[in-house]
Amino acid sequence: MITEFHMKMLHGGEEAAREIYHYCGDEMLTKLYFFRDADADAFAK
């Protein structure tokens, strides 16, 4: 489930963010945004 949400965050845009917020709340959404940004930073280096 967490992998599915991560992929939605990467490719789903605002619609995916609303869906995750609806199912999991703001805490999970914040964690996924942080993970997404940290993941992008790792690949940029």
From TrEMBL:
This is Metal-dependent phosphohydrolase. It comes from Bacillus cereus (strain G9842). It comes from the Bacteria.
